[in-house]
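FIELD: query
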Amino acid sequence: MSSAATPPTAPAGPTSSASNWTSGRKLWNPDLPRPHRQVASRVWNARNNLSIGETMKEREFIDWIRSQREGDSAVVVVGPGDDCAVLACGGEKLLVSTDQLLDGVHFDLKRDGAEAAGRKAMARALSDLAAMAAKPLAAVATVTLPKGFTRADAEALYRGRRSVSDAFACPMVGGDVGSWSGPLAIGVTVFGTSGGVKPILRSGAIAGEALCVTGRLGGSWRTDRHLKFSPRIVEARKLAAKYHVGAMIDISDGLALDLWRLCEASGVGAEVQAQAVPCHDDAVAGRKITPLQAALGDGEDYELLFTLPADQAEELCRTQPLGTPITRIGQTVNPDAGVMLVHPEGKREKLEPAGWEHET
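FIELD: result
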């Protein structure tokens, strides 16, 4: 990934109207519901002693990996730090991304079933290709089966994965299968090509661009939307072909956290108009939080967050040519302004980078 300029100024502590949040993983106030994935992952870590020595967060580990500069090669166009690696392959760009899912963290096998798990595994991996406007090419997978996993379960897992592969012309061409005493673990690696458009990075935004999102946000893990979403491959390809998209990322860990990732990579700040954020109807059912809080922090939406010139954003939002709703939610600004949430009455507050983040 290209070196970013000065990142936006970090906020100093939780904000007043978002007092249920802190940075990183500690998003949920004790009086609020917690996603089963967060609870389950903590139980699994404790049970299996996965924390060795100093604990770390996902971002800290990724930053350390990037510091090792393993990708310093003529073939590596974009290395660790973006949604996909980009490799020079003859006259074409090859994009590669890998993703893993664990029972009890990303899905509940007993409740959701193996077919839903297989479907989500493939869709999540393809969402990374969508984030860079890549054309899917092929995939490989690893599956570690738990004890007692039946042939019927395995066939259901295959059907779920296959349904998404077929829908996006991304066949499974190989992989590996094992078994163990732990939970079902699925890893999918996808390959894509630039297919005539330049890969869109997280690091391409400049100050003064419009911030837009596809779809509606919040509450996906409270229903089955996190299992049945459609990766925005088609939408991303259309955007890249017709518009001057500066930067793009898929919203997997919450709008707030993924916006911070985009801003940091691009060296810009941002202003988000609170009333403009498109919140899903089921975002707050049975919860003691606002729709905006759910949209900013829930994650698992797999929508696209992207920047483009303001005049193009106006046309895009007016004509809605993608078949999926597009909403302008704000704009990028100079990095020294930080990342701000602007309320209808004019109140401005620093937006915390809160959302889902793996932690040992």
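FIELD: remark
The domain at 200-350 is CATH 3.90.650.10 (Phosphoribosyl-aminoimidazole Synthetase; Chain A, domain 2).
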